[in-house]
Amino acid sequence: MIKAVISGTGLYTPPATISNDELVEAFNAFVELHNAQHAEAIARGEMEALQPSSSAFIEKASGIKSRHVVDREGILDPERMCPSIPERSNDEPSVQCDMSVAACKEALEQAGKTAADVDAVIVACSNMQRPYPAISVEVQQALGIDGFAYDMNVACSSATFGLQAAVNAVENGTARAVLVVNPEICSGHLNFRDRDSHFIFGDACTAILVERDSDVAEGKGFDILGTRLKTKFSNNIRNNFGFLNRGDESGIGQLDKLFVQQGRKVFKEVSPMVAETIQGHLESLSMSPSDLARLWLHQANLNMNQLIARRVLGRDATVEEAPVILDEYANTSSAGSVIAFHKHSGDLESGALGVICSFGAGYSIGSVIVRRR
């Protein structure tokens, strides 16, 4: 019987960074400009004055201290407040393709494999930079993979949903090995003019190689013991931007079509759903929360992760048990839990159990339970 194994992971981190202090300085300069330009309307009560942000507010609300971005100049320009990413010609690799190739090469190197060993590519992330041709097919060609590829989108849960698809392909014999890639340019769909959300996202790309257990050296990688997915429709996290509502000529677009969320509702509704999903998944595999050595949770909000870990374990998790990377990377949507896994799994001993769990818009939840080989 074929079983699926995670044999390698890769990470592409954009070199540009923005600290909370830098982000706040730009945002507050924008607020001053806006309030000055609309001073008369604000005085008449026709418009509310915008309120400044602060680094202390951001860290308390989210645990985020910094973020990596594809472009920093456009974001920090008070008269623009969005990334400036030049459009490339059809003959050039797309931005997401370049990010994906870098992450995939590291995953292949870690696994000791080449493109010739791979039969499929799944690009799974919260937003693709174009509808078609599929980014995954472009990545497949760039890597020189002979097989098939497709894109998928389940927002912040895209990586774990992609992992299940990869597991299915490997275990049913459709592919020997599958690359699951998550090129997240979250800064492109974030409203940097909104005080409640301007600090949330960063950019990054992760890659995971899933192979047949017979093709992976003994003691290398992680056995995938099971996957569990759950979705429930909600408008509390939403992005309405698409091909039916194009942006304006400035490139800034329609701000009401960008990322919006009802943060308190999401916190209240999603946290128990995630904990129950993990607990139910463990029970279905005749395991208990006490068996877990590590929880690689979606990196959206520190308070949320701490609550979920507490609900699952029945106590507060240590930083080793539930590692955090959002302080450096911010929320990177589907890539977050994989970044945590990539950076904080090498120290686990043979037989150690862990869960890769993502959650977000949809609502969507993905749980992948793994064991160190």
Topology:
Layout: E1 4-12, E2 16-19, H1 20-37, H2 39-43, H3 55-62, E3 66-69, H4 95-111, E4 120-124, H5 135-143, E5 148-152, H6 158-171, E6 177-185, E7 203-212, E8 222-231, E9 237-238, E10 260-261, H7 263-284, E11 292-297, H8 302-313, H9 326-329, H10 335-343, E12 353-360, E13 364-372
Parallel strand pairs: 4-5, 4-6, 11-12
Antiparallel strand pairs: 1-7, 1-8, 2-3, 6-7, 8-13, 9-10, 12-13
Helix pairs in contact: 4-5, 7-8
Word description of this protein:
This protein has ten helices and 13 strands. The chain has a domain of 151 residues: Thiolase/Chalcone synthase (Peroxisomal Thiolase, Chain A, domain 1), CATH 3.40.47. α4 crosses α5. It has 373 residues and is an alpha+beta fold. The mean pLDDT is 94.
In short:
It is built from ten helices and 13 strands. The chain is of the alpha+beta class and 373 residues long. It is globular, with a radius of gyration of 21 Å.
